[in-house]
Amino acid sequence: MAAPGASPSDDPAAGTGTGGAATTRPGSLVPARSAAASSRSALAGLIRRDLAVLGKNFGEFVGRTVMQPFMLVFVFLYVFPSIGQGIGSGGGTAGESAFATVLVPGVVSIAIMFQGIQSVAIQMSQEFGFTREIEDRVQAPCPIWLVAVARVLSGAAQGLISAVIVFPIAAVVHAPGVHPHFDINWLIVLTLIPLSCIAMTSLGLLLGTTFEPRNIGVMFGFVVLPLVFLGGTYYQWTKLSMVEVGGFHWLQVLVLFNPLIYVTEGMRAGFTSVSHMSLYVVYPVLVGFCVLFLGLGLRNFRRRVLS
């Protein structure tokens, strides 16, 4: 109780005396954290936990990240040219080098996409399935949606690491005489790669909360494979204008619904000087896909947790 004549602001039990900006726990002089501060702390803790697990299994992470991109460039840029079946070999080594220039940014793009699906969709399907680890995560002192955001951000960090690992490998693995030509624009690279990582991990969140664990194989067969083959990994979007029916460039229009095409075209703009989709289209559409995938994924995540 305050001493006679003392104002309420002088009473330690009454708080700080600054208009209620901080509160205290009963029987304690330590100010209680706000809900926002608790949420930020929980979010940081969840991300640190995922990155700590990544650090302990970094060798496995590198192995699964590198294997598919390495095999792609090894077969297309080393084996095929070495046996005289190189793509673009009709134009000699210059044609093969031109194909290599187109392929390498595409390889980085699919590395980011697969990392987003593996680190979010596959892990989340396991957590909702037999491990039930999701029940522990949602007990964190933060809103349910923030648990999903933490997984998206930690997955995006892994996607960023995969891009850093894959690009040097894809750039140097090629047959003698085959030389990809790079013209790196660092502003595009440093802005587009993080945006692409968030877009692909948001897609992973949507897929992981949409498909049941037993249907993961269906997800790869009917969603992931079409994304890869129609995502501009092996060709430029501008070249698809040659595929037409009655003057209608149907394939060039169809692939616009594929989020991966914007990642690959953006990567070509950042790493090479070959023709590519306008960046005035790439950036806004990728942001739109981020908002769409994240919004739908968070809605599905909440439904799955509360069901």
UniProtKB/TrEMBL annotation:
Signal peptide location: none
Taxonomy, superkingdom: Bacteria
Region (Disordered) location: 1-28
Pfam families: ABC2_membrane (PF01061)
Protein's membrane topology: Multi-pass membrane protein
Coiled coil: none
Family annotation (PROSITE patterns): ABC_TM2
Segments traversing the membrane: 70-87, 99-122, 143-172, 184-207, 216-235, 247-265, 277-298
ABC transmembrane type-2 domain sequence ranges: 60-304
Compartment annotation: Cell membrane; Membrane
Composition-biased stretches (Low complexity): 1-15
Keywords: Antibiotic resistance, Cell membrane, Membrane, Transmembrane, Transmembrane helix, Transport
Similarity-based family: Belongs to the ABC-2 integral membrane protein family.
Name the UniProt record assigns to this protein: Transport permease protein
